[in-house]
Amino acid sequence: MSVAIIDYGSGNLRSAEKAAVRCLRDSGSERLVQVTSCPQEVARADHIILPGVGAFGDCIRGLRALDGMVDCLEQAVIKQGRPFLGICVGMQLMATVGHEHGTHAGLDWIKGDIEPLVIPEGQNLKVPHMGWNQLNIASAHRAHPALRGIQDGDHVYFVHGYHFLARDPAQVMMTSDYGPVDYGPVDHGPVISAMIGRDNMIGTQFHPEKSQQVGLRLLANFLEWRP
């Protein structure tokens, strides 16, 4: 029994590894965490994590450059239903297409587009979005096992300039409003898909491994999840 964190040259690997190891240790589990670029090792894992830092096009090229990795993921995640977590750009790669520095086909696991954050005119908000923002849980997903112990208003850490526009709103599990919490409806920044998901797969735009106790709670929930 193991957890595979995929190394394709574009991930925040060590932070994700340390966070996963801590969650397993705290739960008393003896499962192994493997940072790997080997499809055979990913195929044997019972939970799969795809991190990501950088531009969409670079990341999808890096993933496809690992011989057999995309086919392995299709088999393990789509056909066999292994629990999957995409983090930041790893979440974005689940989309149909990304529009960062050109147009790039994604994995197309969750229909949607990766588009630049657009700040309303007159708002003093910066891109990339970096910092702590509150979570808003979609009512249909409050009972999802990955969200056990997560509350509306919990803060998590974001670093991104592009975001996931899901074509099916029902697959948006959590959102976050980019802007101070006391902004009014007119002065608000964009609404961000903070977490997406369907079936056995979830993805977070924020970084659980950098989001202190809230992030560790979500990661621990994922590692216990048996969809």
Keywords:
6 helices; 4-stranded mixed sheet; 227 residues; alpha/beta; Rossmann fold; 8-stranded mixed sheet
What can you tell me about this protein's structure?
The longest helix has 14 residues, at 13-26. The chain has an 8-stranded mixed sheet with strand order 2-1-3-4-14-13-12-9. Strands 6-5-7-11 form a 4-stranded mixed sheet, with helices on one face. The model is unreliable at 180-188 (pLDDT under 50). 26% of the residues lie in helices and 28% in strands. The two termini are 16 Å apart. It has a single domain, classed as Rossmann fold. It has helices at 13-26, 39-44, 56-65, 69-79, 89-92, 212-224, and strands at 2-6, 32-36, 47-50, 84-87, 97-98, 104-105, 112-116, 129-134, 136-137, 155-160, 162-166, 172-177, 191-198, 201-204. The protein is built from 6 helices and 14 strands. With 227 residues, the protein is α/β, with parallel strands linked by helices.
